[in-house]
Design the sequence.
């Protein structure tokens, strides 16, 4: 499987997982997903019989960390970067990675009326509890195209989903 096929497979898995978890939690049907071409959000589905687009992202922390987690070959320089990275406290890497991911996604134009950002935590060193502990330190861009931003706490979805935006969802989620 080449890199783009693997990326589409990961996005499709994440979308299906999110839809199942969201539906279980809120009782609102999310069905029939299809993958989109670039310049549009990754996946489209039906949310309670209305079209909804999902932009999917995986949170690794950094490109080097992603390569390590995915079992990719690390070059000598990359290996040195990974060692330096692992000396950085996990919570700092978590916040830096999550803030960078959200900011990068917020800069794009998705050519759609409704888009949600769904982030799947792919880093086994971070748990949903870590994210909950530090989510108030997230730097949400003042302007972004996302109606909602959600995080799947782990690759398998065992820790559930967490609302990161809008603030009203976050308040309902946490308290």
Sequence:
């Amino acid at each position: 499987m080449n890199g783009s096929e693997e990326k589409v497979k990961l996005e499709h898995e994440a979308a299906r997982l999110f839809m199942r978890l969201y539906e279980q939690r809120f009782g609102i049907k999310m069905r029939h997903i299809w993958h989109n071409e670039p310049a549009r959000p990754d996946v489209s589905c039906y949310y309670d019989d209305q079209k909804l687009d999902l932009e999917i992202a995986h949170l690794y922390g950094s490109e080097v960390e992603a390569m390590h987690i995915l079992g990719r070959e690390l070059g000598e320089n990359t290996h040195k970067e990974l060692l330096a990275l692992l000396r950085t406290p996990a919570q700092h890497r978590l916040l830096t990675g999550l803030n960078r991911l959200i900011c990068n996604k917020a800069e794009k134009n998705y050519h759609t009326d409704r888009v949600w950002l769904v982030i799947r935590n792919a880093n086994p060193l971070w748990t949903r509890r870590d994210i909950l502990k530090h989510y108030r330190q997230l730097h949400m861009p003042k302007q972004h195209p996302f109606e909602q931003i959600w995080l799947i706490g782990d690759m398998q979805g065992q820790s559930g989903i967490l609302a990161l935006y809008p603030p009203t969802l976050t308040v309902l989620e946490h308290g």
In short: The helical segments are 3-26, 63-69, 76-86, 90-106, 128-134, 167-174. The chain has a mean pLDDT of 82. The chain has one domain: 3-174. The beta strands are 30-35, 43-47, 50-59, 115-121, 148-152, 161-165.
